[in-house]
Amino acid sequence: MKPAQRPLELSLRLAFYILKNKLRGRKRFPLVTMLEPLEMCNLACVGCGRIREYKPVLNQMMPVDVALNAAQESGAPIVSIAGGEPTIHPKIDEIINSLVEKKYFVYCCTNGLLLERMLKKIPPSKYFCWVIHMDGMEERHDESVARKGVFKKAVQGIEMALSQGYRVCTNTTVFRTSDVEDLWQMFRLVKDLGVEGSMISPGYEFVDAPDQNMFLTRQESHNLFKKLLDPAKTQGMQFYNNPLYLNFLRGERDYQCTAWSNPTYTVMGWRKPCYPLADEHVQDVAELFDAELWEHYGVGRDPRCANCMMHCGFESATIFQAISTPKDWATLIKAGAAHKGGITAA
Ligand code: SF4
Ligand code: SF4
Questions:
Q1: 96 to each of 106, 140, 345, how far by Cα in Å?
Q2: pLDDT, averaged in runs of 10, over the chain (346 residues)
Q3: Of 304, 311, 316, which is best to mutate to test ligand 2, by the most ligand atoms within 8 angstroms of its C-beta?
Q4: What does the pLDDT look like over 211-259, one tens digit per residue?
Q5: Which of 73, 167, 179, 341 could lock onto 242 through a cystine, CB 3.0 to 4.6 A?
């Protein structure tokens, strides 16, 4: 099937939103609200920090109005819903349908196990996209999520969602154990199925993950992504991340993290400072944009940031830096117009 295209309105809306905030003189503002309406999951992936970090509150479900208020408080035009497994939340359809009604661009990250029953409750929309977790072909993916049969279910879910007119992307976390050839095969497969694009990011070394050896150092990430994203080998694949972030992953560009652009709201409040780290949870999102806070976090400032190259911290950094670099801005506009990456940071 021909790959779907991301709506041009998304890139235009985000570009306008950035411009508006810049003209208002805001130095730090969100691009994507990361909403985690629960932390419970029906899987226990080896690289997952969330299900372990939030063990004491795994049974808590965020009320619909609290989730909607968080999106409004942040104000970002994109809302990325994760967790935990969002489709377990008993009112996830209400949360998503209300956000879509308000014209947020909503991405729902799921392992795909419960997708079929969700399709009956959430209608397709250009404002809504399923993001299916895919860490490799069958053997590798099932190993990564620690359960057999999940890959097949995820592929069935993608096919079913696409055939019913939904926008669909995939999301891949790359670890030291990832097999480049296997990932190429998977990226080709999902493109042939017709997904809008594949998002990629190296995994963050969550202290709560049971196997600390699986996470890549910065140098290892550069080496692996140089190979994985070799233009000669990536024909027939469609990445969702913007081209500047892909250059960053290959080690061809350097950025400081701008994780304040992806504030993360959980059942305990806003993670402070960022999606990977929660030194505390706070109730006021404005605390995440405080200049003084960011004197203590980022590469070279906190040892826990040394190996972090996650898109929540660095894809937005490529966008913010591009604002003052016309050549880079042109690259993003071009990619956005071609519906390949460009001005999105979901
Ligand atoms: S599917 Fe996602 S939330 Fe669930 S265990 Fe795996 S990584 Fe964690
Ligand atoms: S570099 Fe540090 S502050 Fe930035 S996203 Fe990564 S862990 Fe968070």
A1: 7, 31, 19
A2: 78 92 95 98 90 95 98 98 96 98 98 95 97 97 95 98 97 94 97 96 84 89 96 90 96 97 98 96 98 96 95 94 92 76 56
A3: 304
A4: 778 899 999 999 999 999 999 999 889 999 999 999 999 999 999 999 9
A5: 341
Nearest CA to ligand 2 atom 2: 305
Determine the residue of 50, 55, 144, 215 to mutate for testing ligand 1's pocket, defined as the one with the most ligand atoms within 8 A of the Cβ atom.
Answer: 50
Contact between residue 169 and residue 199 where contact means Cβ atoms under 8 Å apart: yes
| Dihedral in degrees, nearest 10, Cα atoms 6, 11, 17, 18 | 130
Tell me the CATH class for 8-337.
alpha beta
Ligand 2 — pocket residues by CB below 6 A?
257, 259, 273-274, 276-277, 297-299, 302, 304-305, 308, 310, 312-313
